[in-house]
Amino acid sequence: MNEFLSYLAEPIALRTLWACAVIGFVDGYVSALVVLRRSSLQIGAVSCALLPGIAIGILLFGLGQWSALVGAIAAGMLVGLSSLFVARTTRLHHDAALAVIHSAAFAFGYVVLVRLGMQQKVDDWLFGNIMSMSYADLCLAYATGAAALLCITAFMRPLLLWLFDPNAATSFGLPTRAISYGVYALIILALVSSLQAVGALLTLGLLVAPAGIMRLLTNRAELMFWGAGAIGGGCSIAAFFISYPLGLHLGATIILLLGIAFCVAWRFRSSSR
To answer: Which domains does the chain possess?
Structure first.
């Protein structure tokens, strides 16, 4: 206990705690878009496709914060849009095209990063290392989080209309295609902002579980956003206080707590019927 209290007095502990709160809340908030859009598996595939973008960015511009960030964003956009293009120009379903492209891209990124001698960094990008986030990383998480929250909150009504009734949204003159691409871009930003925290393999849990829990508890779409944000942030903060004393991986602990919360919510929902 004394060791944990001493750790809390360190600047890295405060930085990690803030990162848990911000990334957890923002990803939870954005997770409502993923769940209501019914694109959880597609986003999971795209999250793994961030790795080749990081590899190419480092290969071209060297190891740096911005090279990895820009590469990850570009890869996420490219894989998602190219799979959609393949599905529209062939008889192959979008999910199948996405599975083929993202798995090949993931393998390419892993091979390149290992060849560059970055095995330890690969582990961090796959499973996350939130304790290694610098102040610059935290500011980046603040910026992307603020952009996502402002955009979703400002356009909440047209977004909900597009999510629940695309035909009605089109009849009202809403730019449904632009909304679709905009939502996809926001989700990619959320993926990238949480990449260092929970990694490419675990970030899907943070972008699905909070809204999945709220979906079990309420039918009001507006409550899903703020409730999912609170759940994501709350579980992330709780994981911070649990993982260090027990010697657990922080990113994995966040997803584990979200999984437990989902089971509790499902049990509560089942018993209340």
So the answer is: 2-265 (1.10.3470.10)
